[in-house]
From TrEMBL:
Domain of life: Bacteria
Annotated Pfam families: 2-thiour_desulf
Protein name: DUF523 domain-containing protein
């Protein structure tokens, strides 16, 4: 089973109430090969919500307690991001997920790029809180940008 970010499955769960449907992910869902998860909703957020970015490091640093997740109003929402990450991990374990495909750039779901904490649209290398926790737990995390090539690799095994 594959876990995917809910927003990539077309669900309007992003901070601004939009989705970003990925057609390959739609096919996986249609074929019952994927389950959609939104770590931020699992962490207790609703939609719409203030955007948030990590300050002081990426998801690894947040898990280590050396960085925080701050929303655009300046509220410290670190605890909800960590909670959402653990809930997503629980779901991944429950369905015995082999791969998790998460939305790039998100402070929860980013797997190789994140925003730099200044709310200016600038990105830096790094991963979100959920991606970091899943990887620490031995689960493969990729972005939607890597999905097509990863599926080809799996087909050729
Ligand atoms: Fe999409 Fe992940 Fe953000 Fe939820 S937390 S809206 S699944 S990127």
């Amino acid at each position: 089973m594959i876990i995917v970010s809910s927003c990539l499955a077309g669900m309007k769960v992003r901070y601004n109430g939009t989705a970003c449907l990925d057609e390959t992910i739609q096919k996986l869902l249609d074929n019952n090969q994927a389950v959609a998860v939104c770590p931020e909703l699992l962490g207790g957020f609703s939609t719409p919500r203030e955007p948030a970015e990590m300050v002081g490091g990426d998801g690894d640093a947040v898990l280590d307690g050396t960085a925080k997740v701050i929303d655009r109003l300046g509220n410290d929402v670190t605890g909800m991001y960590i909670q959402g990450a653990y809930e997503a991990l629980e779901q991944a374990r429950r369905v015995e997920a082999t791969i998790v495909v998460l939305k790039e750039n998100s402070p929860s779901c980013g797997s190789s790029m994140i925003y730099n904490g200044t709310f200016t649209g600038l990105k830096i290398p790094g991963q979100g809180v959920t991606s970091a926790l899943l990887r620490r737990s031995g689960i493969e995390v990729i972005s939607e940008e890597q999905l097509a090539s990863r599926l080809k690799e799996l087909d050729s095994l």
